[in-house]
Amino acid sequence: MREVAGKWRPLGPALLLPPLLLGVAKSARWAGHRYTPDWQSLDSRPLPAWFDEAKFGVFVHWGVFSVPAWGSEWFWWHWQGEGLPQYRRFMSENYPPGFSYADFGPQFTARFFEPDKWADLFQAAGAKYVVFTTKHHEGFTNWPSPVSWNWNSKDVGPHRDLVGELGAAVRNRNLRYGLYHSLLEWFHPLYQLDKKNGFKTQNFVNVKTMPELYHLVNTYKPDLIWSDGEWESPDAYWNSTGFLSWLYNDSPVKAKVVVNDRWGKNSSCHHGGYYNCQDKFKPQHLLGHKWEMCTSIDKTSWGYRRDMSMADITSESEIIWELVQTVSLGGNYLLNIGPTKDGLIPPIFQERLLSIGRWLNVNGEAIYASKPWRVQFEKNSSVWYTSQELAVYAIFLRWPENGILNLVSPITTTTTKITMLGIQGDLKWVERQEEGLLISLPLLLPSALPVGSAWTVKLRGVE
């Protein structure tokens, strides 16, 4: 990750068909379609439906940076790229003279990595997809890349195919599997040569980046490719459009694969299957393109770090509120954790993931496969809306002091019924022209409520 301190073409009359027939019409429209290696063609590809329906995923940053586990996953760059004094001091105080970054490799053991336990945790968290780091900017690959030259998890450290093992476990639980891949590598000599040449040569791309991407797709058949490391050079240097046209036309995942927008310094937030724009991207309004907010439980790092404190940890309510707001505005929420060098997920990360799972067990009906409503939030921003078929969901982030929930936007009918997810029975309500819809919430002790934060009222029979 960077450190932080496809649209649909109109289908004409087919849009008037019932949903089931509309899906058939879309499939027929695109059957046999060939995408050319240019953004106009690539951006016309419909986004596979599974991604929008999933809403919530877990991000995993794991690599050799998990060994020093200090500062952030950009440890190598801060130490020897920028030469920051605090990183130099950390190395001099904790490691012998002459210790190189490559010497961390054998210490990345993954000794306690149990992919089934990880997958169980992600499933219990309510995630519908998992995005795993295959290679970060340090260049170390978590699979036996044929062009990694002894800098991979099969030859060094774990002596295991971490990408393959986790993928099998995740898919055994019917979760979608995404692969994060950095286009650049900070200190690779061929990348440094291309950079020196003003990216007018493509030695690194032809020898390293593209062979890796093709190998990842053909070997692991990912549902999602989460590209990163694009910001120093344009997509023409990376051959991004050529790769994506192959991915959409001829790859083994051409019908299901989803990609983000980080394919060149000119493409982020402009091109790609869905938009990330920048880390922790959080728009304040409904966008015309599918997007995803990626963020981390540790507010200052994506990889595990030993100097993490509780003040750096995002609270349960903050995470749930971000999830709700993201989905209300049509986005997906991708929440990151960083395992230790041994392959253990720190308990605080487990606790946060499990708390989301408990919340989704009650409120998932308002999240999964939902669509943005005509109004996304009330003016006070404490009530956010989603919709699904004939139901509208009002998710309120704060419990009103008088036990009366005031909703301004819904318009009731003679058939309106209001319930609360996790609570049996209908709620009493009254509509007042000047005050809006007033709903009497259940008179319960906080301990008796279905969840401790962000409650959902379901409205049926509203306009």
**Describe the biggest sheet?**
7 strands, parallel
pLDDT average, as an integer? 92
Strand order of the largest sheet: 5-4-3-2-1-7-6
* Residue windows where pLDDT falls under 50 for at least 5 positions: 4-29
Q: Number of helix segments?
A: 13
CATH superfamily of the largest domain: Glycosidases
Helix fraction bin: 25-40%
- Specify the overall morphology: globular
Which structural class is indicated by helix and strand composition? Answer: alpha/beta
CATH architecture of the largest domain: Alpha-Beta Barrel
Query: What's the domain count?
Result: 2
Relative strand content: 15-25%
CATH topology of the largest domain: TIM Barrel
* Count of individual beta strands: 14
Termini gap: 43 Å
Question: Your description of this structure?
Answer:
By secondary structure, the protein is an alpha/beta fold. The chain folds into 2 domains: 12-366, Glycosidases (TIM Barrel, Alpha-Beta Barrel); 383-462, Immunoglobulin-like (Sandwich). Helix content is 28%, strand content 18%. Helix 6 (115-124) packs across helix 7 (162-171). Its EC number is 3.2.1.51. Residues 380-459 form the Alpha-L-fucosidase C-terminal domain. Its main location: other.
Features:
signal, 2 domains, 28% helix, TIM Barrel, 463 residues, globular, GH
Describe, in short, the structure shown.
With 463 residues, the chain is of the alpha/beta class. It is built from 13 helices and 14 strands.
